Amino acid sequence: MHVDVKICGLTDETAVAAVRDAGAEYAGFVFFPPSPRHLSAARAAALAAPLRGQATVVALTVDADDQAFDDIFDTFGPDMLQLHGQESPERIAALKRRYTVPVMKMIPVREARDLGAVEAYLAVADRILFDAKAPADATRPGGLGLSFDWRLLAGLDLPVPFMLSGGLDPDVVGEAIRIARPNAVDVSSGVETAPGVKDPSAIARFVKAVRAAEAARDRSMERIPS
Ligand SMILES: O=C(O)c1ccccc1NCC(=O)[C@H](O)[C@H](O)COP(=O)(O)O
Predict the structure, then answer these.
(1) What is the DSSP code string of 118-131?
(2) What radius of gyration, in Å, describes the C-alpha atoms of the chain?
(3) 14 in contact with ligand 1, CB cutoff 6 A
(4) DSSP line for 64-110
(5) Cβ(175)–Cβ(149) under 8 Å?
(6) Complete domains list, the chain, with CATH
(7) Which InterPro entries match (predicted)?
(8) Which among 154, 158, 162, 169 counts the fewest CB atoms within 10 Å?
(9) Span 195-204, pLDDT tens digits
(10) Alpha carbon distances (Å) from 90 to 9, 54, 65, 79, 146
(11) Is 164 close to ligand 1, i.e. is its CB under 6 Å away?
(12) Strand 192-194 vs strand 127-132: parallel, antiparallel, or unpaired?
């Protein structure tokens, strides 16, 4: 089964290499000023321009207000929203009435009971992203290079696709896929040389590791007698 790749927090022309050379299916741009990956809508639009039609261009926000979304849609024009704050199901429903793009909702995970939060979003979110829960004193709710126990997602069967995120890198993403069997994986810190500085070679290695994990899973499925 194919596993999509999202490279998040793109901040320069590496975005083109991530999509055209490495083959990432999603390109994420952060609109959250405390983040080292934060971009203006105009800068993100310029970086995303060569990606249009080749990848799903994702706008990542944290509890943004309507004015912020209007600016993002007027200037940047995302293909998908990733809501990485404490947005309610009602807020998601309102945003989907206002903007006609799919919405991916982040669910923070540290322990099994955190998964209970998913239920309320299944009727409104088009996709779920599981990310490591940020510490209370963190300056941002994501992009921290933190992971959680992927076994918490083993056997998870949701009515919408889910993306696995949090502390992934080229060395561990294969194991994460084997354990959690996500529809997609997402990475930021694990393909950077410094916060906000993406490494094209690391991105290529990450995608290559995902493709290898896909192939290994397909081989293991072939060995299962039908
Ligand atoms: O990336 C950020 O700086 C960020 C800031 C505020 C909210 C979310 C943020 N990133 C969200 C992502 O989708 C990251 O890719 C995800 O949290 C995984 O990050 P990492 O563990 O660094 O790979």
Answers:
(1) GGGGTTT-SEEEEE
(2) 17
(3) no
(4) --HHHHHHHHHHT--SEEEE-S---HHHHHHHHHHS-S-EEEEEEES
(5) no
(6) 4-223 (3.20.20.70)
(7) Aldolase_TIM, PRAI_dom, RibuloseP-bd_barrel, TrpF_fam
(8) 154
(9) 999 999 999 9
(10) 27, 31, 14, 21, 29
(11) no
(12) unpaired
**Active-site pick, 4, 131, 169, 186:** 131
Dihedral angle sign, alpha carbons of residues 173, 5, 164, 226: negative
Q: Rounded to two decimals, what is the model's pTM?
A: 0.97
Question: Count of residues for the chain?
Answer: 226
DSSP E strand stretches across the chain: 4-7, 26-31, 56-61, 80-83, 103-109, 127-132, 162-165, 184-187, 192-194, 197-198
With a threshold of 0.90, tell me whether the complex ipTM lies above it. Answer: yes
Residue 187: which of 211, 208, 203, 209 has the closest Cα? Answer: 203
Q: How far is 170 from 205, CA to CA, in rounded Å?
A: 6
Q: pLDDT, tens digit, for every residue of 175-212?
A: 999 999 999 999 999 999 999 999 999 999 999 999 99
Mutate to test the pocket of ligand 1, among 11, 62, 63, 84 (most ligand atoms within 8 A of CB): 84
